[in-house]
Amino acid sequence: MNTYNLKKLNFYKCSSVKDYYRTFLVNVGDDLIIEDKQILSGVYFNLEIRKKNDNLHISIKLYCWSNKTQSNVPLEQSIWTENDFGGGKHIVAIRKHYDKIINNLFYTLETLKYHWQIKDMIYKMEHHTFIFHYKLLNLFTQKELENIFLKNFKNYPILNIPMYKTIPTKSNFRYSFLPHVINGFYIYGLEVSVDINSDDSPVIEDDNGKITKEQFFKELNKIGKI
Strand, coil or helix: what is 105? Predict the structure, then answer.
């Protein structure tokens, strides 16, 4: 398994911060061209941030979904080893695709000088925000939508992949992570979608067709998911 490492010596030399360890899954799904087809990689960074003595250690491993474990696992054990996904032959190409992105991210992290900058990065990953399509907010409140997503969906911080495909400047570090943009969702047989038309309300449907917001919450209440 490939592990990418960055070590900044004496980063905490003038700090009284105690040793700590954080680990995050960061959504870095990006389109790949494989066998002349555009495919979403489904890749995540398993990002580890550690303070040990006075040094800052950051490591990244590539993770992806496994149908066998129903969880994200190291790339070498993921769906990319299954026959339907090439039986492992695309893993080298996936690593190569992310090599530059990781190197550019490390380049940015190398420019950081202060502990508060790492604290800010950790805070953004622990408290990533949601941006909901205006049509969703015409029917639901922000609080209603956030409650649904915080309780029922696993959400991960999202790396700004377009920025890291080129070497970013130091001043752009604040834009390293992006908010979730939610246009619709599917939950327990209920689909909420934003149609491309002049109607300013989203469409809520169950297996039998369109339902109201009240019916939507009634169904979620019935199964204890709200």
Answer: helix
Q: How do residues 136-170 score in pLDDT, each as one tens digit?
A: 999 999 999 999 998 888 889 999 999 999 877 76
pTM of the predicted protein model: 0.84
Query: Are 128 and 157 in contact, with CB atoms under 8 Å apart?
Result: yes
Contact 21, 48 (CB under 8 A): yes
DSSP 8-class letter at 184: -
| Residues forming beta bridges with residue 60, ordered by sequence position | 4, 47
What is the C-alpha end-to-end distance of the chain, expressed in Å?
A: 40
CB-CB contact of 152 with 225 (8 Å) = yes
Q: Which of 69, 72, 51, 62 is CA-nearest to residue 96?
A: 62
45-63 tens-digit pLDDT: 999 999 998 999 999 999 9
Distance CA 47, CA 57 (A): 11
* CA atoms of 220 and 192, how far apart (whole Å): 13
Instruction: Count each helix (H run) and each strand (E run) in the chain, helices first.
Output: 6, 15
Query: Pairing mode, if any, of strands 190-193 and 177-178?
Result: unpaired
Helix (H, G, I), strand (E, B) or coil at 24: strand
| Segment 37-52 mean pLDDT | 94
